[in-house]
């Protein structure tokens, strides 16, 4: 968890949306939830259920009478909107805003993001209080987000600014420690190639070297673990055993 922007819901209409907003925030490490003029029943059982474990954010939410009071301690504020307000203000995407927020906070400042009521969005007077407008670049023919979706999208961009840029290429099982040592892989190649010689698969002498290289490269690309190599040994062994038993029964 780290200090992050305040999420300010202006006159939210449904308690469930406040709960899902808290859930979206905590997923991205944000905890400063502020509510401007919510309905009296905003902290209902429905809100708690919708928070789905993010109670710490929901219960710590602060309530304000007006937007000006909610942003009074902040140094920079973004207002989210999906339509042109015909005001002279800079416009950021969520990604651009996230980088700017990191800069503000790194310099010791505080910032926040305004979200309007579900049905109508922010009023122009609320947007006027903000320094910058934030707009999500979506399908121009349909760019409607519900409240929690908008909060999650913007919170995610904030979180990604400091999160690792890459994920592990492969998850690991409980007993695996990554790719097997080459010794194990080469031992398996020897086992497989002996049996392929035995069954006649590699019978064409001038093609044998190329076929072996192709087979080895197939398994090299698989980045096999030690456990997977043991499994392949077992597969080869069972196939050989079956072939021999079948040959004996036919003989």
UniProtKB/TrEMBL annotation:
Keywords: Cytoplasm, Methyltransferase, S-adenosyl-L-methionine, Transferase, tRNA processing
Alphabetical list of InterPro entries matching this protein: Alpha/beta_knot_MTases (IPR029028), RNA_MeTrfase_TrmJ/LasT (IPR004384), SpoU_MeTrfase (IPR001537), tRNA_m1G_MTases_N (IPR029026)
Localization annotation: Cytoplasm
Pfam families per UniProt: SpoU_methylase (PF00588)
EC primary class: transferase
EC number(s) from the headed UniProt entry: 2.1.1.200
Taxonomy, superkingdom: Bacteria
One annotated GO biological process: tRNA nucleoside ribose methylation
Assembly with partners or alone: Homodimer.
Main function: Catalyzes the formation of 2'O-methylated cytidine (Cm32) or 2'O-methylated uridine (Um32) at position 32 in tRNA.
Family in the record: Belongs to the class IV-like SAM-binding methyltransferase superfamily. RNA methyltransferase TrmH family.
Protein name: tRNA (cytidine/uridine-2'-O-)-methyltransferase TrmJ
């Amino acid at each position: 968890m780290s200090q992050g922007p305040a999420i300010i819901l202006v006159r939210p209409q449904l308690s469930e949306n406040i709960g899902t907003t808290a859930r979206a925030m905590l997923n991205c490490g944000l905890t400063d939830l502020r509510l401007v003029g919510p309905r009296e029943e905003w902290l209902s059982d429905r809100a708690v259920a919708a928070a789905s474990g993010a109670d710490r954010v929901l219960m710590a939410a602060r309530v304000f009478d007006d937007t000006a009071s909610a942003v009074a301690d902040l140094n920079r504020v973004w207002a989210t909107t999906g339509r042109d307000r015909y005001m002279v203000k800079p416009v950021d995407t969520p990604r651009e805003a996230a980088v700017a927020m990191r800069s503000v906070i790194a310099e010791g400042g505080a910032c926040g993001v305004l979200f309007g009521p579900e049905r109508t969005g922010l009023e122009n007077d609320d947007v006027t209080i903000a320094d910058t407008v934030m707009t999500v670049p979506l399908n121009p023919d349909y760019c409607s987000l519900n409240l929690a979706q908008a909060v999650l999208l913007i919170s995610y961009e904030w979180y990604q600014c400091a999160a690792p840029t890459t994920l592990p290429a492969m998850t690991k099982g409980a007993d695996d420690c990554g790719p097997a040592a080459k010794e194990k892989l080469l031992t398996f190649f020897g086992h497989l190639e002996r049996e392929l010689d035995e069954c006649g698969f590699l019978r064409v002498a001038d093609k044998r070297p190329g076929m072996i290289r192709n087979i080895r490269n197939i398994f090299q690309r698989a980045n096999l673990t030690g456990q997977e190599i043991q499994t392949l040994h077992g597969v080869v062994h069972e196939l050989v055993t079956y072939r021999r038993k079948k040959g004996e029964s036919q003989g």
